[in-house]
Amino acid sequence: MKSLASDNYAGAITEVMQALLHENQDHAVAYGNDKTTERLKDELRLLINYQFKLHLVFNGTGANLLALSLLTKPYDAILCAETAHIYVDESTAPEGLTGCRLIPLPIDETGKLTPATIQRAVKRRGDLHHPQIKVLSITQPTEYGTLYTLDELRGIHRVANENDLLIHMDGSRLFTAITALNCTLQDVVQASGVDALSLGGTKSGMLYGEAVLVFNEHIHDSPFFHKRSMQLASKSRFISAQFLALLNHDTYRKYANIVLERTQQLATVLRKYPQIIITKPVEVNAIFAKIPPNWIKPLQETLFFYLWDEHMHEVRLMCSFDTSEEEISLFDRKLAELTR
Asked: Is 7 helix (H, G, I), strand (E, B) or coil?
């Protein structure tokens, strides 16, 4: 049974499965020293047109922790949104591995950080009694499924530069974001001035695997941190093969366009019912909405989703690359039944 819970619930796209079968036909050198991983590096360099170091990891938390550990020392602090995955959904792992303090910042009504908010948070530089603010972590798209425009990213980059902050980007759904913005990876890297990027693959149709792209040229010891993080896969080529399947002929855009279309179809269905209030702009594949509390359980039994804020009766509905029009129609019929 499918759901509207998370794109993590979905399986893998056909192209990824085919790529894995093809990669499985022969032996190759381990730990990322293989030809498939070299091809991935070459492909990403062509797309981004920047120099970087590539480290492949198993999961999103591992990507974020490796990226942040490269940018910080144990007495530093990391600024992030109060809703950031590293603050809300990665337990104590970020602080435990990096030794740093996470400082959550208030977001605006669309879930974004603003340059003014970031500026106000930078304080007590040089005070040994206070964690030293070193890194700004942003999420694209945000945890509310909204998008920073390229101009907004440039504004954040400017305030970070003015305050000597390094930038980490959690891009677990970045392929969907750049499709929605009709821009490229290079556009986002250039606009944000990102020092270390967590680039997601799992939520875009891979079985597993993420990538950390390190753009900061002053970081030379990232391979040692990669090993220390316990995220260095001996058979890294199977992660590389999946990423290549996404990048080949812009396959990620094909599936991102499907998920964006389905999400807008679902939003149109929800807007038919005055009892439902969509609470955030619908810009990628997440919909946040207030639903009558007595509707939540029967709707979850039809297509499961998460209750986001139980006090507000706000839920999150998330489409995946394999969400079908038939499933959206099923949800619509259940809503119609509940209104009778």
From this structure: coil
* Nearest partner of 190 among 81, 47, 312, 77, judged by Cα: 47
DSSP element (H, E) containing 94: helix 93-98
> pLDDT for 287-297, tens place per residue?
999 999 999 99
User: What's the whole-model pTM score?
Assistant: 0.97
Cβ(104)–Cβ(84) under 8 Å? Answer: yes
Asked whether residue 146 is domain-assigned, the answer is yes
Residues 6+ apart with CB under 8 A from 127: none
Indicate the residue among 206, 235, 250 that finishes a domain: 250
CATH number at residue 117: 3.40.640.10
From the number of C-beta atoms within 10 Å of its C-beta (0-12, 13-18, 19+), residue 120 rates as: exposed
Q: CA angle, 214 as apex, 209 and 219 as ends, to 5°?
A: 135
Domain boundary among 233, 250, 267: 250
Structure tokens of 216?
């900061």
Rounded Cα–Cα distance for residues 6 and 287 (Å)? 11
d(CA 95, CA 73): 11
Q: In this structure, are strands 277-278 and 286-290 parallel, antiparallel, or unpaired?
A: antiparallel
Q: What is the pLDDT of residue 308?
A: 96
